[in-house]
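Appendix B. Raw example, untouched.
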Amino acid sequence: MKVYHYTDLNGLKGIIESNSLWATNINFLNDEDEMHHGISAFENTLIHLKDDLSDKSIGILRIAIEGHRLHQARHNYNISFCQNPDLLSQWRGYGSSQGVCLEFDSDELIEALDFGTSRFFSGDVFYTKPDSTLKAKEEILKFLNDADFLEQKNNSAIHEFVGTSELVNSLTPFFKHESFQEECEYRIVIQPETKSDQVCFRVNGLGLIPYIQIKAKQITPHTGLLPLRSVRIGPCKNRDFLLEGIGFLLNCNGYSDVEYSFTETPFRA
């Protein structure tokens, strides 16, 4: 699947020169309720599961949700992508700093990135109302009623708790408020094994933003490079000048086969 990462020229320079993508702590993204939204979606669902799950299973789910809230939620890091390669709202966000849109294939990218010992999950974001429960209920029941899970649960008393905790940890980061729906976000969520493992900080207009750097593997079909397919240049004044500089940057760092294009959005940056 094609996915697109919007950034500015400073971001592009950092990505290309380091062969890496920055995963931002989810609590510091543009949605101030980012992690709370996913946890709330699961909590609100509990009361609607009484006809589908035993009291024991609901109790285990409640413990897993609370455990995630207390211990795991603040240590999720996210790399965001869009499924639209020419989205006006993204160009508006980067218009004052010369935006670009980087195209990847999601499977190629996952294969190329070195996550080390960190756990990672990838997929589309679920956009829901704050009090919506339907999507969370669907995902919970799909997992808990899976034949493989049921078999392992019957063979091991602890397996239900471990599996339920895994479900909560892996799914809550993918719930987002419906007002962000036009972003059509695909994300890669990384959960480091050590909470302070390789955490870096950058500064923006709001304050300090924690992130971790996810580099390309040194031994890949791309020989340590990211599998970048194309660069689309956003609204700008000096197209030829900007294109020449971007081409120079990419070629000097081994990205000689990347295609270029310009946005078709008539937005005056």
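End of appendix B.
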